[in-house]
Amino acid sequence: MEYGRALELQRALVEKRKRGEIPDQLLIVEHPHVITLGRNGKPSNLLASEEVLRRAGISFFPIERGGDITYHGPGQIVGYPIFDLREWKRDVVAYVRTLEEVIIGALSDFGIAAGRLEGFTGCWVDGRKIAAIGVHISRWVTSHGFALNVTTDLSYFQYIVPCGLTKPVTSMAELGVAAPRAEVIESLTRHFALNFGIEIVKREIETEEAVWSMS
Amino acid sequence: MVDVVMPQMGESIVEGTLTRWLKKPGDRVERDEPLFEISTDKVDTEIPAPAAGILKETLVEEGKTVAINTVVARIDETGDGTGAAAAPPAEAPAAPAPAPPAPPAAERPPEQPPVRTEPAPVAPPPAAAPEEPIGPLSPLVRRMAREHNIDLRQIKGTGAGGRITRQDVENYLAQREAREARPAPPPPAAAPPTPAPAPPPAAPEIAPPPPRVEAAKTRVEPMSIMRSKIAEHMVLSKRTSAHVTTVHKIDMTRVARIRARHKEEVKARYGYSLTYLPFITRAAAEALRAFPLCNASVEGNNIIYHNEINIGIAVALENGLIVPVIRNADEKNVLGLQRAIADLAARARSRQLKPDEVQGGTFSITNFGSFGSLFGTPIINQPQVAILGVGAVEKTPVVTEDDAIAIREISLIGLTFDHRLIDGAYADQFMQKVKSILQNWSEEIL
């Protein structure tokens, strides 16, 4: 799903969720190559000029989530939970820790021992980042979320890797795990249900992309 | 007056970083309208206003971290604050305006934001008028005043009821510019002459804000992304590490001879030139094995010893630099290192490096000698703790052990190290090792 379209969809779902018209949603998608810059991210962390990005077929979006700069692309599972935290726990840090727990749990299903790195939100395997997290909250309703590298072509991270200063990235494939995307999604949703104490109903919106309704 | 406080966004959270004000003092805010943003741990949260009114003041700057329940702003609920407050009633078409008929729409530019339709919280207070020295102002005029830093008391309104119109502001601005454009009086040595008779000021004796006249003595250009990234890292490194540099004089004559002997053959067989750098890298890798503290990093109160020796080689680019990494440099011979250096440098210059080729370095070498520098004090590449700076190899007269004077290929090679972790004696022992390897180079096999 194009990043811009997913953004619109998220915004629409957030508005509906705020008005209480829909239950919690979990949007799971895959994006074409895109680099997004969080509100508080420094544009300087983008290493390539927008011209270079355009030539490489990568779009660029400055957006309103937390966190700095990140890359999304094929082979990644991107999850956007639209949750009303008032119905769960009014605690943004607990929310982020639970997102990490969900991903760590799902990875362990595939024999990958991921963990946390104190002070660095996200999920890590041996000092390499396998999943990124960046969240926006408005009136306790969450948007944006996480991106898990399944078979991501990691060379695309070079456009945002400045002079070897940041920590390296990895993917399930790089760690030698050839997991079908659908199985990883299945595992993620199971751990979502487990950790957030919810039930999940799958609802396809387009081929290979789905909104997962919570109830 | 309603206090706006830093909210608690979770049980364990005791403070928050205010990242952005979404409203400015003087702005009207509605209840539950996003007022500012805070950031905790990769989560951005919009905080809504607790009440409707005029944002009187913000007490915390963007970027500051404050404890929860700290008052960050005040909202004036009565909405009858200064000029900013009095206007909305006048422009709400539905509200019965006490003022003369609202000025014709033509006065407002089309791009003006739609007029708020919510009824004014209280009936337009007639009492407000006397307190308002300059009469009601349109949002446009207020914005122009803010943007151009105009004291509206200096402007005489020509609109209905003495109201200040956009035209008035534009006229005032034109006058001000004309004033500012005049050459400044010659810098007076002592008592300045009485000010030249300026065109009659629009208002008496209130000094306008200091004019911002840019002379063309500078040229402004935004930094490239790489430039600002480098700038950031250099300052970060200086702030992080306690930099100390020690310089050793190293006789490269033996290496120079070996190099001269194999240069042609290497060029012919492998297609790259044989430089001094792979010899120095090889010596450094060997010394790092003996002095592992130079191949470590600091994390909190822990020393992280790296089992791999991954040496970054600083490569100058047209407008910056990058430090690609030779992994397991200690497992390569001189030719392998030369190949790696040539390959990484070429691909660095054509921006073809893969991300993991610029990551994971445990030590760095910078060869400013190739630009003629004798010795330098480079900045450590974080999170490493040492960097070797290589000066130019130059023919130099030296006094030999038997008190003769000989011509030798001398290079000043320095180690800049992080004194948090490495003491001077240790650094010098490391350098002695490097020196000993280079001066007694014995391997005929490269």
Describe it for me?
The complex is a heterodimer of chains A (215) and B (446). Chain A is 26% helix and 31% strand. Chain A contains four helices and eleven strands. Chain A has helices at 3-18, 50-55, 92-109, 181-196, and strands at residues 25-29, 34-37, 59-62, 69-72, 76-82, 115-117, 120-125, 128-138, 141-149, 200-206, 209-214. Mean pLDDT of chain A is 84; it is low at 206-215. Chain B has 446 residues and is α+β, with helices and mostly antiparallel strands. The longest helix of chain B has 18 residues, at 253-270. Chain B is built from nine helices and 18 strands. Helices cover 27% and strands 23% of the residues of chain B. Chain B has a six-stranded mixed beta sheet with strand order 9-18-17-16-12-15, covered by helices on one side. A four-stranded antiparallel beta sheet of chain B has the order 1-8-6-3, with no helix packed on it. Chain B is elongated and about 100 Å long. The A-B interface holds A 38-40, 42-49, 64-67, 89-96, 121-122, 133-139, 154-155, 157-158, 161-169 and B 9-13, 19-20, 32, 34, 37, 39-46, 48, 223-226, 228-230, 232-233, 312, 321-325, 353-356, 358-361, 381-382. Strand 8 (128-138) of chain A pairs parallel with strand 5 of chain B.
Number of continuous helical runs of chain A: 4
Give the biggest beta sheet of chain A: 8 strands, antiparallel
Sketch the topology of chain A as an H/E string, one letter per element: HEEHEEEHEEEEHEE
**Which residues of chain B form runs of ≥5 with pLDDT under 50?**
81-133, 184-204
Key phrases:
heterodimer; A: 215 residues; alpha+beta; 3-stranded mixed beta sheet; disordered C terminus; B: 6-stranded mixed beta sheet; 9 helices; elongated
